[in-house]
From TrEMBL:
<protein>
    <recommendedName>
        <fullName>TRP C-terminal domain-containing protein</fullName>
    </recommendedName>
</protein>
<feature type="compositionally biased region" description="Low complexity">
    <location>
        <begin position="34"/>
        <end position="47"/>
    </location>
</feature>
<dbReference type="InterPro" id="IPR040410">
    <property type="entry name" value="UPF0658_Golgi"/>
</dbReference>
<feature type="compositionally biased region" description="Polar residues">
    <location>
        <begin position="23"/>
        <end position="33"/>
    </location>
</feature>
<feature type="transmembrane region" description="Helical">
    <location>
        <begin position="257"/>
        <end position="282"/>
    </location>
</feature>
<keyword id="KW-0472">Membrane</keyword>
<feature type="transmembrane region" description="Helical">
    <location>
        <begin position="87"/>
        <end position="111"/>
    </location>
</feature>
<keyword id="KW-0812">Transmembrane</keyword>
<feature type="transmembrane region" description="Helical">
    <location>
        <begin position="166"/>
        <end position="186"/>
    </location>
</feature>
<feature type="transmembrane region" description="Helical">
    <location>
        <begin position="361"/>
        <end position="387"/>
    </location>
</feature>
<feature type="transmembrane region" description="Helical">
    <location>
        <begin position="213"/>
        <end position="236"/>
    </location>
</feature>
<keyword id="KW-1133">Transmembrane helix</keyword>
<dbReference type="GO" id="GO:0005794">
    <property type="term" value="C:Golgi apparatus"/>
</dbReference>
<feature type="transmembrane region" description="Helical">
    <location>
        <begin position="294"/>
        <end position="314"/>
    </location>
</feature>
<feature type="transmembrane region" description="Helical">
    <location>
        <begin position="321"/>
        <end position="341"/>
    </location>
</feature>
<feature type="region of interest" description="Disordered">
    <location>
        <begin position="1"/>
        <end position="73"/>
    </location>
</feature>
<feature type="transmembrane region" description="Helical">
    <location>
        <begin position="140"/>
        <end position="159"/>
    </location>
</feature>
Amino acid sequence: RPPAAAAPTVKIAPSKSHHKTRSSLLGISSGPQSPYFPLSGGSFSSPSPQPGVVPPGGYHDRQGLPTTPAVSAGSKKSRKMYMPNSTWTWAFMLITIFQCLILMALEAYIFGQFQASLTLRRLPEEGADGQDPRAPSRTIPTWLAIFIFGFIYQIGLVWDALRLKNTIQVIGVCLYNLGMMIYTAVEMEQVSEAVAALDNGVEKGTYPKLRPFLIAAPCVLALGTVLLSFVAWKLYNEFAWTIYKHISADLRLKRRYLVYQIYIALLKFDFFFFLGFTVQFLVIVSETPDAERYITIAALPITVVLLILAGIIVRKEWGWAHILIILVYFAASAYFIFKLVRMWDASPSRLTDYKPARNSLTTFAVLTLLLMLVTITVACMCMANFGKGLRPHIQKRKVPDADEIAYTNKYGEDTEYAGTAHPLGPVPNRMTID
């Protein structure tokens, strides 16, 4: 038989699809790099994900299965020092810095002119009443040191408030500025009294040369207070959403968090005013009994330690330790009342000792006493909020420890937290819209 003819080759032209490729409705790509991986053992033929490959935020994340933490540029930046990131945060920081530079320049000029005009060699080492006639010359250097520290400390407070988005501390900075304005207004009279007390120890016409700069300082602070208050109002609206996301819409929990923020801010301001009073007392008031002077010196480091402990105790909600801190506040209030009485109702010799800085010491003592009374009140309110679900929201650690889990299980009805101690941290118990 003749060989069969080969079958004709039919070439089929590839059909062109009229459908366009579109992305997944779930918002993820369908390629090999797709973040979707079904669980192993299912009916799907796709391979199960390898540990360390599955990105977070999907099904595995919700089920507590291992995922790969996403390392983004933002997480790297978060390790660096905080910098303002909006118009109003930059405005608040820059107003504070410019105000600090202007006032430090004014105070440096006042200090330089005052020191250049001193002629202490004309004064005896001991006056007729047994007092040191040169004591008033130490007032200006002491005030300058307090001003420098005060404004540098204010910059630190502003940076801390913006970093934490703490609206209470932002408002506190405005009140702090107001307190410094009162202090600079008192300084004018104190310089006048110091120049008059030195008499022959200072050149004639010194105070008239310093007076314009002494007037300018509170005026600059008044303008700065107005500008800071306006920007603080803008920041209040800007930070409100951040607090809402952190605490949720629970009004009771928001009130407790507000009380906690007020207390922490008060501790930071208490430190400056107590330190300012103590430094002035040690430097300017020379004729002080040794026992009283040593107690005052020892109070400086003890105060710093106690204020740090107070912040830790209220965060941990240690009731017995918090009661001891409140008792310390009462003791500090009694100390400032005692100092006020000694400055204004003591023997004539003691009144002479306090005279070089009595007005400024009184200003600091009154402001510190008022702050201490407010701190005691807010501390009692914080203690009333212990055990009501606030602690998991104010812990610095992102992963809760066993103690926090036990606390949440006991007081969980008032919180948004319902997770377990696994590396993913808290698992939300409802959908949140960011």
